[in-house]
Write a structure and sequence with these properties.
The protein has about 400 residues and is an all-alpha fold. Helix content is about 80%, strand content about 0%. The longest helix is centred in the C-terminal third of the chain and has 55 residues. The radius of gyration is 20 Å and the shape is globular.
Length: about 400
């Protein structure tokens, strides 16, 4: 059954979940500004180092498919903290990995267990009153997005101070701390679904087949996230190679993207007022303009920073509006709905980062930005089909 928490306790729960989501999601992005250092440490090419990002995202997609549906079967108060303990173990091993093979394997496991963020977001929708659902999801998403957007800055600064491996040890400690916090703060939540795990997984496939809105929102956000992944996978090489920035300066550059987190609660309120369709269209247009600017303004760090802010605003705004729509579809299956949505997104992100590594090696920044512009154009086509197909 859906439980609505009292206002005061809901605020504490929401803040705790937002912090946990941010710290867990950040694990997927620490590697992005460190790729040049990782490549040097393990004596591999830039394209091979980009496989670390792909490994994180493939792992995350696996976790979304195999672990996230458990949110409709297992008490989230037990599931989330235990998963964070596994994350901490994988991070600690990655921090001391002697070779690229073990580091990549742990990157996959870090991705698998970092799905805690997506376990908690549907819980926020469960606990909030229906008229505040968009706001609650937006607030928790703000924490998640800040984690994503600040991860690159924190990782860069940590690398400059203590070496690139330090961020993995720091995050391992934070995962253990958040595990304890979630046990103390989260209410017990008895899921409505009582069938076996096998039937639960079969129902995920059935949801994807039956819900056209879910498929459309998932595919549209997948294209937005693929653009995001392409930009942030390649930008470090551009900043180091073309603009000769050091690791601390790259951290400052990554900080500008954190402005995108401010759009999450605003987008949630926009959706609550019935403006989700036009909001998603605006996000796609902003994302397209951002990638065009990133291509034509590559000679200026300032213009690249503006492009980063615009892109992050676009991707996060589109994501919050899309999630509000899909959580309204099936109140008894929000974790499984989120499984379809997020696994689609991160499969696209993994493919995009893999393609980006090859494009950057072969065609440089221009090839990456042309690819990203193409992704945004396709996202626009998906919106048009959704809008005029009345879905």
């Amino acid at each position: 059954m859906t439980t609505v928490a009292p206002t005061r306790s809901l605020r504490l729960i929401t803040v705790t979940m937002a912090v946990a989501c941010g710290l867990a999601a950040a694990n997927l992005y620490y590697a992005q500004p460190l790729l040049a250092l990782v490549a040097g440490s393990f004596r591999i090419s830039h394209g091979a180092a980009a496989a670390v990002v792909t490994a994180n995202q493939i792992g995350y997609a696996i976790g979304l498919i195999l672990l996230l549906p458990l949110g409709d079967l297992v008490d989230n108060r037990k599931l989330a903290p235990r998963t964070l303990i596994a994350t901490a173990a994988a991070l600690a091993i990655a921090a001391v990995a002697p070779n690229a093979g073990l580091f990549l394997a742990m990157s996959v496991l870090i991705g698998v267990t970092s799905v805690v963020a997506q376990i908690l977001i549907p819980l926020a929708a469960h606990l909030a009153p229906a008229e505040q659902r968009g706001k609650a999801v937006g607030q928790v998403m703000s924490g998640l997005l800040l984690g994503i957007l600040l991860a690159r800055t924190v990782a860069s600064l940590a690398a400059a101070a203590w070496g690139w491996r330090s961020i993995y040890l720091i995050s391992a400690v934070l995962m253990l701390a958040m595990s304890v916090a979630l046990v103390r703060v989260l209410p017990e939540h008895a899921p409505d679904h009582t069938a076996s795990y096998r039937r639960l997984m079969a129902s995920v496939v059935d949801l994807a087949r039956r819900e056209a809105v879910l498929r459309q929102r998932a595919f549209g956000q997948a294209l937005m996230f693929a653009t995001f992944s392409a930009f942030w996978t390649a930008i470090t090489y551009e900043l180091v190679g073309a603009h000769h920035l050091g690791q601390a300066a790259i951290g400052v550059f990554a900080l500008v993207g954190a402005a995108g987190a401010a759009i999450a609660p605003l987008a949630g309120r926009l959706g609550d007022r019935g403006h989700g369709v036009i909001g998603r269209a605006a996000a796609i247009v902003v994302g397209l303009l951002a990638m065009i600017l990133a291509g034509v303004g590559a000679g200026s760090v300032v213009l690249l920073a503006v492009a980063a802010v615009l892109l992050d605003v676009a991707v996060q705004g589109h994501g919050v509006l899309s999630q509000r729509d899909i959580y309204a579809l099936r109140g008894d299956a929000r974790a499984r709905v989120n499984t379809v949505f997020m696994s689609t997104i991160f499969v696209a992100g993994a493919l995009s980062s893999a393609v980006t590594g090859w494009l950057d090696d072969t065609y440089g920044w221009t090839g990456v930005t042309v690819f990203a512009v193409g992704l945004q154009v396709v996202a626009g086509a998906v919106w048009l089909r959704s809008r005029f197909g009345r879905s």
